[in-house]
Write a structure and sequence with these properties.
433 residues, mainly alpha, two-stranded antiparallel sheet, two-stranded antiparallel ribbon, 19 helices, 66% helix, 3% strand
C-alpha cells in the first residue's frame, strides 16, 4: 500500500483498490470506442488500419500510464476526437499534406507543447484567447465531428446545387441511423459504456445487412499488428512555410484549450480543486499529455488529449492514479483483440461521433450570446469549422472577426499583442495560401 500511495497517490482513507479498479474499468469501457473510431478516421489518409489500431492502443496506454505516475490523478488520455479529424480531413484532405508530413507536424507540435508546458508559457497563450472563443472552439469541433459521423455513414452526401443534402436509404445509411439512435438512447438512459455498446451492437446488426464484412478464417484474438507501416514515418520536406506555422499554432491552441478545459472540469468532479482555484498536479497532467502526443506521433497516431469520459470513472469513485493505471493496462490488453475492433464499419462508429459532438456542444451555454461583439466571433468560429470542413479555418476566422470587431468598436483594451500577431499571421496565410 505504501508503494501505491507514493507512486499513484492511492489513499486507503478515501478509496479502496476495488473501487479504483471498477472506476478504471468503467472509464476504459466508456472511452474504448476510440480503438474503433481513431483507426477508421486516420485510415482515410491511406495509413494501414491494423498498424493504426496498435498505435492507438499503445499511445493511449503510454499517455495514461504517464499521467497515473506523474500526476497521480484518475484521468485517462487517448488520441483527441477533434484532432484526429484535423489530421485526416484538414491536413491530409483539405491542405494536401501527406500523412507522413502530417505525422511530422504532430511531432513538432508535441515537442513545442512540451517546451511551453515546461516553461509555463501555456498560461500566457491561454490567457490571450477570449473566453467566449475558447467555448466556441470546443463546440465547433463537436459539430464538425458530428458532421463527419453523418458523412461517413452516408446520411449526409454531396448534392449538386445545395452542396450537401440527405442521402438515400442504403444499408450503410440505415445502419448509421440505427447506430446514432441506439447510442443516443443508451446515453439518455445513463448506461455506462453507452458509446462502446452502441458501436458493438451496430457492428453485429450490420452483419445481416451486409455492411459488416467478416473475413474468411476470422478469429477474435490475434497477435498485435505490426507498427512498421507507420512507425516514425516522418517527412519534413516542404514543411518550412507560413501554412505549416499556422497549422502548428492551431494545433497548439486546440490542444491547450481542450486539455485545460477537460482537466478543470474533471478536477471539479473529484473535489481536488483548492479554494484559490488551482489544481494540484495540473502541470504534470499537461506534461503527460505532451509526452503522449510526442510518443503518439512516433508510433503513428494523432495528438493525445485528456478524455472527458474520465468522468464516468470518477463517478464510480475513482480518485487517484490507480484508476489511470487500470485504464492503461486495459489499453495494453486490448492489443490482443484487434480483429474485433477492425471489423467495425464506419457506419457503426457514426453514433459515437455524433454523440461526442453532442457532449462537446455543452460549452455553447457558456458563451455570452447577449453581447453581439462576443456572440458574432463565436458563431463565425463554430459555423466555419463545419462549412469550411476545417478546424484551422474556423479558429482563424473566429479570431480575425474578434480582432476586427473590437478594433472597429474602439475596444483596444480587450485585445492583446498575442491576438494581434495571430490575426496578422492569419491574414498573411489567407493572402498567400
Amino acid at each position: 500500500m505504501k508503494i501505491l500511495e507514493k507512486a499513484l497517490g492511492f489513499n486507503p482513507a478515501i478509496t479502496t483498490l476495488r473501487t479504483e479498479t471498477i472506476a478504471g474499468a468503467t472509464t476504459f469501457l466508456t472511452m474504448s470506442y476510440i480503438l474503433a473510431v481513431n483507426p477508421a478516421i486516420l485510415a482515410t489518409t491511406g495509413m494501414d488500419k491494423g498498424a493504426l489500431f496498435t498505435a492507438t492502443a499503445l499511445a493511449s496506454a503510454i499517455a495514461t500510464l504517464l499521467l497515473a505516475f506523474m500526476a497521480r490523478l484518475p484521468f485517462a488520455q487517448a488520441p483527441s476526437m477533434g484532432l484526429n479529424a484535423f489530421f485526416a480531413f484538414t491536413l491530409c484532405q483539405a491542405m494536401h499534406y501527406t500523412w507522413q508530413q502530417s505525422l511530422a507536424i504532430m511531432l513538432v507540435e508535441g515537442l513545442i507543447f512540451l517546451l511551453i508546458t515546461f516553461f509555463n508559457i501555456r498560461e500566457m497563450i491561454l490567457d490571450s484567447i477570449p473566453q467566449n472563443l475558447r467555448y466556441a472552439i470546443s463546440a465547433g469541433i463537436g459539430m464538425f465531428i458530428a458532421f463527419i459521423g453523418l458523412k461517413n455513414a452516408e446520411i449526409i452526401v454531396p448534392k449538386e446545387g445545395t452542396f450537401v443534402g440527405l442521402g438515400e436509404f442504403t444499408p450503410m445509411s440505415i445502419l448509421g441511423i440505427i447506430a446514432i439512435m441506439l447510442s443516443g438512447i443508451l446515453m439518455a438512459r445513463r448506461v455506462k459504456g453507452a458509446l462502446f455498446y452502441g458501436i458493438i451492437a451496430s457492428t453485429i446488426i450490420g452483419i445481416p445487412m451486409g455492411v459488416t464484412q467478416i473475413p474468411d478464417n476470422w478469429l477474435p484474438v490475434s497477435a498485435p499488428h505490426s507498427l512498421s507501416p507507420i512507425f516514425c514515418r516522418f517527412d519534413f520536406e516542404g514543411l518550412v512555410n507560413y501554412n505549416t506555422l499556422l497549422v502548428v499554432i492551431s494545433l497548439l491552441i486546440v490542444n491547450i484549450f481542450d486539455t485545460v478545459g477537460t482537466l478543470v472540469g474533471l478536477a471539479q468532479k473529484t473535489g481536488i480543486v483548492k479554494p484559490d482555484g488551482t489544481i494540484p498536479q495540473v502541470k504534470e497532467a499537461m506534461m503527460s499529455d505532451a509526452f503522449g502526443t510526442t510518443c503518439g506521433a512516433m508510433l503513428g497516431s494523432s495528438t493525445i488529449t485528456t478524455y472527458i469520459e474520465s468522468a464516468s470513472g470518477i463517478a464510480e469513485g475513482g480518485r487517484t492514479g490507480m484508476t489511470s493505471l487500470v485504464v492503461g493496462m486495459l489499453f495494453i490488453f486490448s492489443l490482443l483483440l484487434s480483429p474485433i475492433f477492425l471489423l467495425i464499419p464506419a457506419a457503426a462508429t457514426s453514433g459515437a461521433l455524433v454523440l461526442v459532438g453532442v457532449l462537446m456542444l455543452d460549452s455553447v451555454k457558456n458563451i455570452d450570446l447577449g453581447d453581439i461583439a462576443e456572440a458574432f466571433p463565436a458563431f463565425i468560429t463554430m459555423i466555419t469549422m463545419v462549412l469550411c470542413y476545417s478546424i484551422a479555418d474556423g479558429i482563424c476566422l473566429g479570431i480575425l472577426s474578434f480582432v476586427i470587431l473590437k478594433l472597429c468598436l474602439g475596444k483596444w483594451k480587450e485585445l492583446n499583442w498575442t491576438l494581434l500577431v495571430l490575426a496578422v499571421l492569419f491574414v498573411l496565410n489567407f493572402m498567400f495560401a
